Amino acid sequence: MVVTGLVSQEELAVRSSIGFYFFLPPGENERLIARTGFTLLVSEDVTAAAEVIAQRWHAAREQHRRELVEREGDANFAGLQGFLACVHRLSAERRLSRYCYLAEKVA
Q: What span, in angstroms and rounded, lies between the C-alpha atoms of 96 and 4?
């Protein structure tokens, strides 16, 4: 995750609530790629895809709220919905960005 705007402590906590993440300043991934001896071939901003996927997943889960709450429980359902809403908001506002990198290492 690349921090590309203001992100609150609460937003970082929600955004990282389902896994282990690093939140880096712009350019840090590229620096680390070069430092390890790789040549960066392509860097693609895929933030828009994260925005769309989070919104669609949130909406789909809302359509099946009753069934999902029965299966997951209220707290888990609400937690995942909050996570998806946060991902959508931070991505849509371009405050937290996602990039895909292609690099090669010549032996």
A: 5
Domain that holds residue 72: 2-104
If one counts the domains in the chain, the total is: 1
Q: Judge whether residue 107 has pLDDT over 80.
A: no
For residue 55, which of 23, 100, 33, 87 has the smallest C-alpha distance? Answer: 87
Q: Are 54 and 87 in contact (CB under 8 A)?
A: yes
CATH code assigned at 56: 3.40.50.150
pLDDT, tens digit, for every residue of 77-104?
999 999 999 999 999 999 999 999 999 9
